[in-house]
């Protein structure tokens, strides 16, 4: 699997470049996407007691070390009130990891932080947090559906973490330092992608994206915003490439759409979103993406190939429908005269004959 090079002119969808990886031709890796999340996941693994008010059940094993105190952790999580099973928060839907500094978390996140501190990178777990380490006696003002004294269930995944170095938090970094840190994460992700470690590569890309969060991007303009987007957009496109290989097409579409929100003519984003939509059977939308991509890269063979595949698919569907309709609306069968019909015909013939004889007899009499 090769990387893609970003040039001053926009790269073609089928070309390789330094910043963006190519999805085509990669071996398939089975990934386990998060559950749909309308209700807490059913987990049968052993219950681990982390605190008097916090327990954990592992959904997916992680790797490496656990974060230490004051580490900056990047996580995705969903949260439900245990009594009502009402989901009140979901960072996966926003496609933006949450950041939590262990030891400096908000009071209502204390139980969540205890759970995260016991996890390894890539680990996903179900946490049960008692109300004393959650939103307390009063419940939540921000989330009205969290009542007073509500125990909380969290499905949480630790994407990765940064250990504090020389006491410098990410919020204290300069713009150049944050962009540089994100770029290093992106390059680490590309290296993991080459090794076909797609899940681990995505964790690096997500951490890079977390450095370029909305609150940070909102403050940037001019060359600094261009510098940040030059790192952020390739990470979203690389995420989409990984997700396509993992057959998680809806998520891939989301990452491509984020890039297109910044650059509506981005060929790679249009191409990869088109591929994901085609896999989901959204052929009209896929054709629209491929056609627009071809407008800006008319010689790109990958785009031409995808458009040809869609045309062949449409032709096959048409032929199949034609066969179905032929069976339903086939040639009209010849009507078969029943016995009663023959009697009517003979009776009518006899009447006509009698009428004819009677008419000739009258004419002779006259």
What's the short story on this structure?
The chain has 366 residues and is α+β, with helices and mostly antiparallel strands. Helix content is 46%, strand content 14%.
Describe the structure.
By secondary structure, the protein is α+β, with helices and mostly antiparallel strands. The protein contains eleven helices and nine strands. Strands 3, 4, 5, 6, 7, 8 and 9 form a seven-stranded antiparallel beta sheet that branches. Strands 1-2 form a two-stranded antiparallel sheet. β3 and β4 form a beta hairpin. The chain starts with a strand and ends with a helix. The N terminus is likely disordered.
Percent helix range: 40-55%
Arithmetic mean pLDDT: 82
Fraction of residues in β-strands: 5-15%
Order of helices and strands: EEEEEEHEHEEHHHHHHHHH
Low-confidence stretches: 1-10, 23-33
Q: Sheet with the most strands?
A: 7 strands, antiparallel
Number of helices: 11
Intertermini distance:
110 Å
> Radius of gyration over alpha carbons?
33 Å
What is the 3D shape? Answer: elongated
Number of strands: 9
């Amino acid at each position: 699997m090769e990387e893609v090079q970003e040039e001053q002119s926009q790269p073609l969808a089928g070309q390789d470049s330094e910043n963006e990886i190519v999805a085509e031709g990669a071996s398939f890796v089975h990934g386990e996407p998060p559950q749909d999340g309308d209700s807490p996941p059913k987990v049968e693994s052993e219950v681990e007691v982390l605190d008097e008010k916090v327990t954990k059940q592992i959904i997916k094993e992680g790797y490496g070390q656990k974060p230490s105190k004051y580490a900056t952790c990047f996580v995705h999580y969903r949260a439900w009130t245990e009594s009502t099973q009402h989901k009140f928060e979901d960072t996966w839907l926003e496609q933006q990891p949450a950041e939590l500094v262990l030891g400096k978390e908000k009071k209502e996140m204390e139980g969540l932080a205890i759970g995260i501190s016991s996890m390894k990178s890539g680990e996903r777990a179900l946490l049960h947090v008692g109300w004393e380490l959650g939103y307390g006696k009063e419940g939540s003002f921000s989330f009205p559906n969290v009542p007073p004294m509500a125990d909380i269930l969290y499905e949480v995944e630790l994407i990765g973490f940064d250990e504090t170095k020389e006491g410098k938090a990410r919020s204290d970094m300069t713009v150049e330092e944050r962009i540089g840190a994100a770029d290093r994460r992106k390059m680490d992700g590309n290296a993991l992608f080459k090794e076909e470690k797609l899940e681990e590569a995505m964790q690096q890309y997500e951490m890079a994206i977390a450095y370029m969060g909305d609150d940070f991007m909102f403050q940037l303009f001019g060359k600094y915003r261009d510098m940040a987007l030059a790192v952020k957009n390739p990470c979203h496109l690389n995420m989409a490439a990984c997700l396509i290989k993992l057959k998680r097409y809806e998520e891939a579409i989301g990452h491509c759409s984020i890039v297109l929100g910044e650059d509506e003519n981005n060929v790679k984003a249009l191409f990869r979103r088109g591929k994901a939509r085609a896999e989901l059977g959204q052929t009209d939308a896929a054709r629209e993406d491929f056609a627009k991509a071809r407008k800006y890269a008319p010689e790109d063979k990958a785009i031409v190939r995808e458009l040809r595949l869609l045309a062949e698919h449409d032709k096959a569907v048409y032929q199949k429908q034609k066969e179905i309709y032929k069976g339903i609306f086939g040639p009209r069968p010849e009507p078969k005269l029943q016995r009663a019909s023959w009697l009517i015909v003979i009776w009518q013939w006899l009447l006509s004959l009698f009428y004819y004889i009677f008419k000739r007899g009258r004419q002779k009499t006259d």
